[in-house]
Amino acid sequence: xxxxxxxxxxxxxxxxxxxxxxxxxxxxxxxxxxxxxxxxxxxxxxxxxxxxxxxxxxxxxxxxxxxxxxxxxxxxxxxxxxxxxxxxxxxxxxxxxxxxxxxxxxxxxxxxxxxxxxxxxxxxxxxxxxxxxxxxxxxxxxxxxxxxxxxxxxxxxxxxxxxxxxxxxxxxxxxxxxxxxxxxxxxxxxxxxxxxxxxxxxxxxxxxxxxxxxxxxxxxxxxxxxxxxxxxxxxxxxxxxxxxxxxxxxxxxxxxxxxxxxxxxxxxxx
Length: 270
Known about the structure:
Layout: H1 11-14, H2 33-46, H3 51-58, H4 65-72, H5 81-87, H6 90-103, H7 105-115, H8 119-130, E1 139-140, H9 141-150, H10 155-170, E2 179-180, H11 193-199, H12 215-228, H13 244-250, H14 254-268
Antiparallel strand pairs: 1-2
Keywords: Signal
Organism: Pseudorhizobium banfieldiae
Protein name: Transglycosylase SLT domain-containing protein
């Protein structure tokens, strides 16, 4: 699931993109992808990514047609709330979410103490995105992001995501072979790379932000994302309440926002 597309520009880290070494030209099919990669690689080095990381990261990148199909076909957001809940298994997420809350009480209590975010919306997001970590996606992350950076439809937006992904590889927080969702989302709650850089938290304190293998990192990072989008401790998160704006920050689709709020409240017993 694609995280919010209403992020502020990732300009602070990558302002030098305004003057690339050699412009990498976008395209609308696979024919120009190899040339785009060759133009982008020195551009990446000029903007602070080490040559070794660039070569390693791009060694297995390919044009991802599955990513393009997914990008052009996000139809579930056009469903009614009731249809969306049925399609996404809302009742099952609520039932499993209550069990996950009971079985991870200390973790959720610690996150709420630190961020002021209760278990319900975190579990709603976790369940909606990956079935509580059961399916993280099967698409090569760097290929997915590079494909969308090359694709003309949202090239600038996903070029920022590609630089963020390369930054994660460079700091050891993302494997060049990592797999995730079709738009390059990473981990148990499906963060786009820019959001990992901005909001990723080392919840288990092992020295890395591992949103794939660490439940603590993924959930703490999700709470930190919500705080970064206006979450206020103790306030409500249903439509019209103060914290609903943070849920809106998670995903741009109204039906998805309503589902998170509804599922979260059911899990929290509200």
